[in-house]
Amino acid sequence: MSSTTTPNANFINQVTELADCVGQTPLVKLHRLPVEESITNGATLLAKLEGNNPAGSVKDRPAFNMIYQAEQRGDIQPGDTLIEATSGNTGIALAMVAAMRGYPMTLLMPTNSTQERKDAMKAYGATLIEVDEGMEAARDMALQMQADGQGVVLDQFNNIDNKQAHYLTTGPELWAQTEGKITHFISSMGTTGTITGVSQYLKEQNPAIKVIGLQPDEKASIAGIRRWPAAYMPGIFEADLVDEIMDIDQHIAEIYMRKLAKTEGIFAGVSSGAAAWAAIQVAKENPDAVIAFIVCDRGDRYLSTGLYNVDDTPIDDNTQS
Q1: Helix count (H) and strand count (E) of the chain?
Q2: Structure pTM?
Q3: Which tens digit of pLDDT belongs to each residue from 268-278?
Q4: Can you spell out the DSSP letters for 27-77?
Q5: Given the DSSP bridges, would you call strands 152-153 and 27-29 parallel, antiparallel or unpaired?
């Protein structure tokens, strides 16, 4: 027997680029949760697992597209510092793409974001600036830094490349994965890039598809989604692409986050619990519907909050309509 092994000269054909791993996430059917919720009318609930992206969230899609398109237009050059205000997932995704493509990255985020998110951004080499006054102040500070010549703001809230990422990828994936049978699409709303991009694509295929957006109610504070003051409403938001907006109670979102993990094995964050709850409400009212919702990220980003160590008591589904 030879003591040496001849390398497989064709192994390179099996190697991919990290950028090619963004998107093409699984769409999985819920089984036990619909039974627990007594859904017997033929409605199908489908979860789009965006935590399977390389940096762990749905924000990998717009992060890559915003940087790539800016490169193609010549808006950014090698060595430029990129700046962005973020509540967490976009910052992690941008830090990953910036590292991948060789840009210094400065991120501004509210101090109340989870430690896991802050550590992830730093792991990718980003400079992190914490802002006590919240997201609106972080957005203002980012723009001031750009005005002072400290870098280029990508501006996820007003950048059409955010929406385009979902028009070009998430929407077509959902249409193909459901073989065109999708009847309802549900997404939490932060920058609104996901919901507007997906909605535009899906409604071009079938205008009858209903699109439901989720925002926190007046008392809720749910990571990654916002109830924006009018002056800070994202410029990419298009109201005519969203058929209904549902207000989400924080306690219910947290309960259904834990239900996803314990009944379906889907370990996700609070906004994903909100989407699961909303999908159940839609399913109960729409027999034979095919309902897809976005699971924005993975639950390991929230372990330090203690939210998974709660023993839930039964809740009355009529506490929210």
Answers
A1: 10, 10
A2: 0.89
A3: 999 899 999 99
A4: EEE--HHHHHTT--SS-EEEEEEGGGSTTSBTTHHHHHHHHHHHHHHTSS-
A5: unpaired
